[in-house]
Write a structure and sequence with these properties.
Layout (H helix, E strand, L loop, with lengths): L19 E2 L1 E7 L5 H11 L7 E7 L4 E7 L2 H4 L2 H6 L4 E7 L14 E5 L2 E11 L2 H12 L11 H10 L6 H8 L5 E8 L4 E5 L8 E4 L4 E4 L2 H6 L3 E5 L4 E6 L2 E6 L7 E2 H7 L5 E2 L2 E2 H15 L6 E4 L5 H11 L7 E3 L12 H6 L5 E3 L1 H4 L3 E6 L6 H12 L4 E6 L12 E2 L7 H4 L2 H8 L3 E4 L2 H8 L6 E2 L1 H4 L16 H8 L2
Parallel strand pairs: 15-25, 18-21, 21-22, 22-24
Antiparallel strand pairs: 1-23, 2-5, 2-11, 3-4, 3-5, 6-7, 7-8, 8-9, 9-13, 10-11, 10-12, 13-14, 16-17, 19-20
Helix pairs in contact: 4-5, 5-6, 9-10, 9-16
Length: 489
């Protein structure tokens, strides 16, 4: 079941797609359970983290089977597909590409033979030393030309672990992990054992949960809830765990230097997830309240840009005393199709996704709360729509500071040139989107709302201060390995 590459256009409306996360990962060790179905539902809960492709690998103790394809989790797997994926352990992945293009060949989990069995691996994050690691793979493979078609940092990690001359997968992984730079939350497996590892900075989330009959590892606690697993704890930055019939074994491969992604709190994580002990919904409500203090407005109604702006809008309304209302209706199913829109439909843009409720908006002064402004196209369209629906004044409020810098750790924002806040002051952005006023929450206010100390957070997209070294030349972006492959470098 391989559909032609590129059939799912992630940005199906041709508008500002906003920040996209790298991926969601899920792993389960549960003898006697239907691990493929557990993985399916776990990935379903993590669908917001990646919508381009999905895959599941299972092992029955003797061999690993993988099924993956382009599309949403619900589009990729049928009941029959899942029935063929038998076993006691599984890993799963839903992808948004941050290294390598959105094609079938780059879908995960990846698979490699090793001298001690088979390795399947799934990854959330982005490595920053892929060039050096690619050269290392080349050296280990003894290949003078290409690297067996390696086009993603995930494949590089898989290859490096598989090519080690160690006694097993665990020893091989522990030999490779210290060589990796950047952000990575990994789940991987051989025929008998489930493994998980997190980079020393813990940029992307990764949690451990307990089933009655086994264990689960997932990107977010919301995925534990959906499969009935109890949240145990976060996997620590710099931690490596193995899960098999002997239970869970944990060891440190690096000293923790926490730098959790601040943007997970603003937008990326599900509102029903917990990160660093804080419920995301509660945190976003607190961010909205802070925003109301810092950027008040005289208005009749506070409305969110659904769904990501809703908790902050609730907080803004509560703190300001301005009533909360739903002025924009979202069609949740837009974009979940393989039918490409025509140019005419594209130009209708955001109308396919959001529609204003005229009876709520007409004649009112509106505060519109959204999570971020990246390129500005979405907000421009929303302001225009609200004006057409009769809004008297439109005050845009944003529950994050201006995004001025790209992320190299697993979020695909845009290039620096595309980020509207990189070249314009707040007043100029306001004029560009057509709002009557524009206000952002301050970085200090945002951090205070998370209740996490600033030194334990990565805020590089707002400040340009990158906690993990990035290569001097990132101009080729997420396709750099493919460019190298094409040119034979």
């Amino acid at each position: 079941m391989r559909r032609p590459d590129g059939l799912l256009n992630h940005n199906v409306l041709g508008e500002d797609k906003g920040p996209q996360d790298a991926c969601g990962v899920f792993g389960v060790w549960a003898p006697g359970e239907e691990v493929a179905k557990l993985s399916f539902y776990g990935l379903y809960a993590l669908q917001h983290r990646g919508t381009e492709s999905a895959g599941i690998a299972t092992s029955d103790g003797e061999r690993i089977l993988i099924f993956k394809d382009m599309g949403l989790v619900s589009q990729v797997f049928t009941e029959g597909d899942l029935a063929t994926l038998k076993g006691n352990l599984a890993i799963g992945h839903c992808r948004y590409s941050t290294t390598g293009s959105s094609t079938w060949v780059n879908a995960q989990p990846t698979l490699r033979p090793t001298k001690y069995g088979t390795l399947a691996l799934a990854h959330n994050g982005n490595l920053t030393n892929t060039g050096d690691l690619a050269e290392l793979v080349q050296k280990l493979e003894g290949s003078a030309t290409s690297m067996s078609g390696v086009t993603t940092d995930t494949e590089i990690m898989t290859a490096l672990i598989a090519l080690q001359d160690e006694k097993n997968v665990e020893a091989s992984a522990l030999a490779v992990l210290p060589q990796l730079e950047g952000a990575f939350s990994l789940v991987f497996m051989d025929e008998q054992t489930l493994y998980a590892a997190r980079d020393r900075h813990g940029v992307r989330p990764l949690v451990l949960g307990k089933l009655e009959t086994g264990w689960v590892v997932a990107s977010e606690s919301a995925a534990l809830d959906i499969v009935g697993a109890a949240f145990v704890r976060e996997i620590e930055p710099g931690e490596f765990i193995s899960i098999d019939s002997n239970g869970v074994r944990s060891q440190r491969w690096a000293e923790a230097q926490p730098k959790g992604c601040l943007f997970e709190y603003v937008y990326l994580a599900r509102p029903d997830t917990t990160i660093a002990g804080s419920g995301i919904h509660k945190t976003r409500v607190a961010i909205g309240a802070q925003l109301a203090k810092e950027a008040p407005a005289e208005a009749d109604l506070v409305i969110p840009v659904p769904e990501s702006g809703t908790p902050a809008a609730i907080g803004y309304a509560k703190e300001s005393g301005i009533p909360f209302g739903l002025g924009l209706v979202k069609n949740s199913y837009v974009g979940r199709t393989f039918i490409q829109p025509s140019q005419t439909i594209r130009q209708l843009g955001i109308r396919l996704k959001l529609n204003p409720l005229r009876e709520i908006i007409e004649g009112k002064r509106i505060v519109v709360v959204d999570d971020s402004i990246v390129r500005g196209n979405t907000q421009r369209a929303i302001v225009r729509m609200l004006r057409e629906a009769g809004a008297r004044e439109i005050h845009v409020r944003i529950s994050s500071p201006p995004v001025k810098w790209p992320c190299y750790y697993g979020i695909d924002f845009a290039t620096r040139a595309e980020l509207i806040a990189n070249g314009l002051e707040v007043e100029e952005i306001r004029r560009s989107i057509g709002a009557d006023s524009l206000g952002y929450v301050s970085l200090d206010g945002l951090i205070a709302a998370t209740q996490v100390p600033s030194e334990r957070l990565c805020s590089a997209c707002f400040t340009g201060e990158y906690p993990i070294r990035i290569p001097e030349d990132m101009t080729e972006g997420k396709l750099r390995l493919e460019i190298t492959e094409v040119h034979g470098h």
